[in-house]
Amino acid sequence: MNEYVIAIDWMPKLHEIWGKLLEGGWVAFVGYVVAAFIIARIVKRLFARYMRSKRLLHPSVRFLAKLTTSLIWVLALVQALRAVGVDLVSILGAAGVAGIAIGFASQTALSNLISGFFLISESSFKIGDYVRVDSLEGTVESINLLSIYLRQPDHSLIRIPCEMLIKNPVVNITSDEIRRCDFDLGVDYSSDLAHVRRVIEQVIAEQQGFFTDDKHPATILFTGFGDSSLNLHVGAWCRTQDYHSVRYSFATALLAAFSAAKISIPFPIRDLRMSTKEQ
Questions:
Q1: Architecture of domain 178-260
Q2: Which of 55, 129, 168, 265 is deepest in the core (most CB within 10 A)?
Q3: pLDDT 10s digit of each residue in the chain, 279 long?
Q4: Which of 194, 190, 179 is CA-nearest to residue 250?
Q5: What's the pTM?
Q6: Which DSSP category does 236 fall into?
C-alpha cells in the first residue's frame, strides 16, 4: 500500500520533468540525434552493400559515403540546436571571425584537401598501383583527402601530401599490363654496327619474357657518337609484373653475347700529360 502511494506521489513530478524537457526542446534534441545515428548507419550499410555487389574499391565511392553521412549529421545537429533554442546566427558569426584566423594557419591543409578531391575525381591511379612522384616511388596503399601512403620497395611507408601530387608529375608505372625494358649502352668505335644489331636481336629473340610480335616490336636505335663509344638505345616489351626479372636476365645474356662476339663496351679513357718547367 505504501509503495502504491509513493508511486502516485512521483507521477506529478515525472510529468513536470517531462513537460520541462518537452518545452525546452530537449526531447526533440535527442530525437534528432537518434534519428541521425540510425539514418547514417543505414546509408553507410547501403553504400557498403553497393560496393560489395559491384566489387568496387574506388576511393570516390568511399568519399561519397563519408560525405553523405557527414551531411546527415550536420543537418541533424543544426535542427537539434534550434530545438533547444541555440542562436546559430551568433555562433556562426563568432565562428566566422575565428575562421579567418584559423584559415590563415590552415592554408596547407586546405590546399591538400582540395588537391585530394581532384585526385579522387581524376582516378589517375588506384590502390595497388606502383607510382613514382618526384624522387619517391612505391605501391599505393591508401588514398585519402589529405595525403596518400606509398609502400616503398624496402617496405617502409611514406606519406605524400596531395598538394605535392598535383604540383608534380605522377608516373603510374603499373597502369598497363605491359612495359618496355629500355637500355642505353655503348660499343667500341671499331665495332660493326650491323653485326652489333644482329647480336642484340638474337638475344632479344631468345628471351622468353619479351614480346616479339608485330604490335610490340623491339627497338634498336643509334643515338649518337659518344666520347669513347657508339651509343645505342635498346628497348623490348615484357609483362609489367616480370619487368625486373626480365631486365636482369636480358642484361646478363647481352653481356655474355657481346663477350662471345668480341664486342667490347668501352669505358672513358683520360690521358694525363704532365709537363715540367725548368727552374
A1: 2-Layer Sandwich (3.30)
A2: 129
A3: 445 444 455 556 655 665 565 565 677 778 888 888 888 888 888 877 766 665 545 555 666 777 788 888 888 887 777 777 776 666 655 555 455 555 554 566 667 767 777 777 777 788 888 999 888 889 998 887 788 889 998 889 999 988 888 888 888 888 888 889 998 999 999 899 999 999 999 999 888 888 877 788 889 999 999 888 899 999 999 998 888 899 999 999 999 999 999 998 887 666 666 665 554
A4: 179
A5: 0.56
A6: E
Specify whether the CB–CB gap between 224 and 185 falls below 8 A: no
Class of domain 124-172: mainly beta
Positive or negative torsion for Cα 63, 121, 155, 243 = positive
**Residue whose C-alpha cell is 584537401:** 113
What CATH class does 18-105 carry?
Answer: mainly alpha
Taking alpha carbons only, the member of 87, 83, 42, 34 closest to residue 65 is 42
